[in-house]
Design a protein that fits this description.
The structure holds 2 protein chains of 2 kinds. Chain A is α+β, with helices and mostly antiparallel strands. Chain A contains 6 helices and 27 strands. In chain A, helix 1 packs antiparallel against helix 2 (71-80) and helix 5 packs antiparallel against helix 6 (327-336). By secondary structure, chain B is α+β, with helices and mostly antiparallel strands. Chain B folds into 3 domains: 8-197, Histidine kinase-like ATPase, C-terminal domain (Heat Shock Protein 90), CATH 3.30.565; 215-377, Ribosomal Protein S5, domain 2, CATH 3.30.230.10; 405-631, Ribosomal Protein S8, Chain: A, domain 1. Helices cover 39% and strands 21% of the residues of chain B. In chain B, strand 19 (450-455) and strand 20 (459-464) form a beta hairpin. Chain B is globular, with a radius of gyration of 31 Å. Classes of the chains: A alpha+beta, B alpha+beta. The interface between A and B is medium-sized, with 31 and 27 residues. Strand 27 (370-371) of chain A pairs antiparallel with strand 22 (496-506) of chain B, so a sheet runs across the interface.
Amino acid sequence: MKATLERTDLLKSLTHVHRVVERRNTIPILSNVLLRSDGGSLNLKATDLDLEIVETVPAMVELPGATTVPAHMFYDIVRKLPDGSQVVLETTSDNSTLEIRAGRSRFTLQMLPETDFPDLTAGEFSHGFPLTAGDIRKLIDTTQFAISTEETRYYLNGIYLHTVDAGNGQQFRAVATDGHRLAQAEVPAPSGASGMPGIIVPRKTVGEIQKLLEDPEANVQIELSETKIRITTGSIILTSKLIDGTFPDYGRVIPQGNDKEMRVDRDEFKEAVDRVSTISSERGRAVKLSLTEGRMVLTVNNPDSGSATEEVAVEYDAEPLEIGFNSRYLLDIANQLSSDTALFRLADSGSPTLIQDNTVDDCLFVLMPMRV
Amino acid sequence: MTVRQLGEQVINQIAAGEVIERPASVIKELVENAVDADATSIEIVTAAGGKTLMRVSDDGDGMRQGDLELAIRRHCTSKITDDDLFDIRTLGFRGEALPSIGSVARLAIQTRHRDEAHAWAIAVEGGREKPVVPAARTRGTQVEVRDLFFATPARLKFLKSDRAESAAITEIIKRIALAYPQVGFSLSGADRQPQNWPAARGAEPHLARISQILGQDFVDNAMEIDAEREGVRLTGFAGLPTHHRGNAQHQFFFVNGRPVKDKLLLSGLRGAYADVLARDRHPVVVLFIDLDPGQVDVNVHPAKADVRFRDSQLVRGLLVGAIKHALVQSGHRSSTSNAAVALDAIRAQTSGHSPTGTGAYASEASSHASPSGGYQPARGYAPAAEARQWSPEIFRPLETAAAPAAGFAEELQSSYEGPNAFADLVRPSADARANDVPLEREKTDLPLGAARAQVHETYIIAQTDDGVVIVDQHAAHERLVYERLKEALARKDVARQILLIPEIVDLPEEDAARLAERAEDLEKVGLSLEAFGPGAIAVRETPAILGDMDIKGMVRNLADELAEWDTADGLKEKLDHVAATMACHGSVRAGRRMRPEEMDALLRDMEATPLSGQCNHGRPTWVELKLSDIEKLFGRK
C-alpha cells in the first residue's frame, strides 16, 4: 500500500475514529485502526466491537492495499506533524511495518494483518430516514444527562429512540432516565421512521454521534434495525450495536394530573440553585423549595457549615408547598431548558414533578423529589 | 417388615452419634462432669489424639457405689433435681455422656465419695457392663476411655490425624479453663506438649487465667468490659482494635460459665468492631454473659454450643453497647504490641553496623545533650531523674534557637546538613524550623505530648513526659475527618431520593418477609421499601448520598445479611464507606509539610476524638515509645 494525503484531512478523520479505540484491550487488533487505500481515497476504520466508525479521506493512491496500525500512536504522530505537510503512508516490502513520512520525519509502525480486523457492518437495516444534524443534536443534548451510569440496569444505559403518534402528528422521540429523573425530547418524525422498532442507543455511541455532528444544517442518514443503528454524515459512517433490553414503560411516570403550576425565570432560578447549593458539601445535596403565592424560597442546610436561603419571584397561586430536590438534578434540567421561563407542574412533596419550557413543549423533564 | 423396639446398645450408639463426635467431645463431657463435681484440680492425659487413651482425673465429690452403677445408664443424672429443664445450673444435664461413651469405647471409672470407706470401680466395654468392684483411690473420680469408637469402626474412619484431634482437645480444654479460673488444669500425654494451668487466685482470677492461656500480650492489649442491663451481666475482656487476628478462633464466649459459639454473639461482636477493624480481621475477646438460667435455653443441641436467649436483642444490644463504650473509653491506648514491634525492629538494626534514622537521631541527640549538662552519667541511672533530665533540656533549644545558651538546634541542623553525620542515610526531612511560640512545658503532660518535629513529611514526633510518640499524619487525620463526617451523618436523617420507577426485586419469600419486617429500621438509613406481593420487594426511596446505585444488589446483600446474622448493618456500612472515602480525600496526605502549630492541633484533636487510636482498617495511628524502652536500646538499663 502506498498513499499520500494532506495531514489536515488525515488528522481530522483520525480525531473522529481514534476515540472509539479503547486505551487497554485484551484483543490486540482492537487497539489498531484499519487503513485501506483504494481508488482516490483512504479509508480509516476503528471499532471496539460495539461501535465502529469508518471515515473516507481523499488521497493519492499509488498502490492500493490495506493494513492496521496502533490507533492512538498513529493519531499522536499525525497530530505532531507540522501543519500543512503531506503525509506519505507506505508499507515496507516485507509487509510487517508501515512507514509514515512527512517532511523530514519518518516513522515506522508495527502492523497487524487487516484480515483479522473485525467487521460490524454485516446485516440488514429495516428502516432508513434522513434527519438534520441539528435535530439529532437536540434529541441527544436534551436527554443525555439523564442516562443511568448504573450498570446493573443496563437497559437504562442509553437513550431510548422511538416514534409516537401525538396530537401534532407522528413524533420521533428520545427518552433517558436513571430512575431519579427522566428527560424526553421529540422532533417531527420523518416518513421513513414510521413503524420503526424502539431502540436503546448506548451511552458511548450517543457521545460519539454528538461529537461527529458539528454542522447543524448537515443532513444525516439514519438506518436502523432491531440490533443496530447506522448514522451516515458526509464521509463518516458510524455503526453501533444497540442495547438488547426493554426500556421501561416511561409513560406511566410522567405525571398527568399535577395541578400546581409555577413559572420562574430560568436563569434566575438556575443561578439561585447554584448559589445556595454551595453550602452543602456532600453528594446528594438537597435544596428545599418553599412555595407561597408569588414567591419561592430556596433553602440549603448543612449542619457542618451553615445554611443558605434565597428568594426568587415566581408566578404561583396554588396553596403553599414545600418540596426537596437534589440540586444537581435541578441544575442539569435547568441547563436543558431553552425558553426564558421554566414551567414547573407540582403535586406534593412526595410525587414526581414535571418541568417544561413555558412556551414550547417538545421536551419535558420529570424529577423525583428528595425526602430531607 | 415388623416394627420393633431397638436394643439398649443400639439406642446408646445412636445417642453417641450425636454427643460423641470426636475425642474432643469425650474430653468436653468428662471435664464438664469434673467441673460440675466441684473439682479444684483436673488432670487430663491423652494418647494418639485421644483415640487410644483419654484419662480425666479430678479431686471432686466422687460417687457412691449405687450412684456409680446408675451413672453409666442412659438418662441418669445427678444434675437435674425436680425435672426442671429451665433451671439448669450445671454444665451437663442430659445424662447421656457416660452411657454414650460406654457404648462406643472401653470405659473405666474409679471414684470415691467422702462417705465411702474405699473407692469403687466399674468398666463398660462397647456397651457391656462389668460389675462394680472395690478399688484404691484417695478421692475424686478418674474416668479412663480407651479405644474410642472400637465398637463403631465407621466413625473411626472419619477422625482426623492424631495431631488435629489433639489440637481440638486442647482447644476444648482452653475454653473450659477460661471459664473456671479457680480450677487447676493440667494436660499431658505422649501426643502433646504438657500444659499446666494452676488454679488462679488473687484479685483477678479471670485475668490471671486469660494471661495463662492467651498470653500476657492479650492482657496488655485488652479493655475490661463490665456492663449490666435488665439482669444480664456482661464481663470479661475485649482486645483493642489494634490487636487483631486473621481468624475468629480467639473469640471466647461463655454463657453462665458454659463455653458457647453462638451466631448472635459473633454477629454482635462484628457489629461492635465494624468501624475500627477491616472486615477480614477479627478481634480477640473473652466475654462472660451471666443471666437468669430461665432466660436462656441451652438444650438446643446435644453438644450445647448453641444457646437461645429469650430476649436476644437485649443481649446483642448489651454486647455491642458495652464494647463500643469500651472502645471509645480506651481511644488513647496504643496497642503495646506496636511499640514492642517497633523496638524490636530498631534493636535488630542498631545491633548491626548501619544505624537507622531513629537510632542515629537518638544517639546524636544524647551526644549533644552532654555539653548542656543535662545528662551526667556519673550520677547513676535512676529512671525518674533521668526522665526529667532527658525530656525538656534536650529539646528546649529547638524551640528557642535564638537563645545563646541553646546551640543545639543549630548543631542539630548542621549535623543534618553536614556530609558526615548521615552520609550513609537518606537525609531525614525533619522539620526543625524554629518555633516562635514559646515552649509550653505542660503540653508534655498531655497523652500525646507536644509535637517536636515532622520526619519524612509523614510522621510527627511528639514528646510526652515519659516517652516519644510517633504519629502517622495521614492515618490520624483521615480518622479524625471520618469521625467528624460520621457524626454529621448521624445527626440528621439520611436524605432519601424518591425513585421515579420503584425497583422491584425478586427474592425468596422468607427473605422478602424478613426485609419487609425491617422496613422501619432501613428507612432510618435511607432505604424505603415495602413488600410487593409474596417473594418481591418494591424499593421506593434510596439514600441520596449513594446516587445512582445498584439497588438489586444492595437489597439482596441485605437479605442475606438478615438471614445469616439477623442484622441489617450493610447499608449503614455502605454509607460509612462513602464517609470514609470522603475522609480520605479530605485529609492531610503523607508528604505534606506541617507547621508546628498544625501538628500540635492535630495531636490535640486526636486526644479529643474517640476512636482516633486506629485508622479505619485497624492500623494504629500512633505508637508510643516509653523512655524506659529507649533507654534499654542504649543499654542504659
